[in-house]
Write a structure and sequence with these properties.
133 residues; elongated; disordered N terminus; two-stranded antiparallel sheet; mainly alpha; 7 helices
Length: 133
């Protein structure tokens, strides 16, 4: 399968690289990249276009679970039950966890503390019973 400009489409590259083991979220990523630019999709999920390319081509060596969370939240409307605000998109959850400490921002402080104090969706392991999701 090729696009109008003769280049292989993202979904075709996903299928070639991942084969039968292609997860649904990688399929969604490939489809989104075929509908918009890879750079636009990368920005939407909070990753670089290079990282998206590596995922599409099944060569990403980083935290694939984090990319999955970002894709599921931004492109597939997946949510988690946040102990601070209730229903929260998985990509937003990940963004709050990545945010740096900001002593001048009450909302950032609340998320920083909630994400590190036993939230079952936390990717931080600062002691306690923090689960990696």
């Amino acid at each position: 399968m090729t696009t109008d400009n003769g280049k292989h489409g993202a979904l075709a590259r996903v299928k070639a690289a991942w084969g039968e083991s292609m997860p649904d979220w990688v399929d969604a990523l490939g489809r989104a990249c075929d509908q918009a630019s890879q750079s636009a999709v990368a920005k939407r999920i909070g990753y670089s276009a290079a990282a998206v390319s590596f995922v599409i081509n099944a060569k990403y060596t980083g935290d694939l679970t984090a990319v999955e969370q970002a894709v599921r939240g931004a492109l597939m409307a997946a949510t988690v039950a946040c102990p601070l605000v209730g229903e929260l998109a998985t990509d937003a959850c990940l963004a709050h966890q990545r945010a740096a400490w900001a002593p001048h921002n009450p909302q950032r402080i609340a998320f920083y503390r909630a994400c590190r104090s036993g939230c079952p969706h936390s990717r931080h392991q600062t002691g306690g019973n923090h689960a990696r999701s």
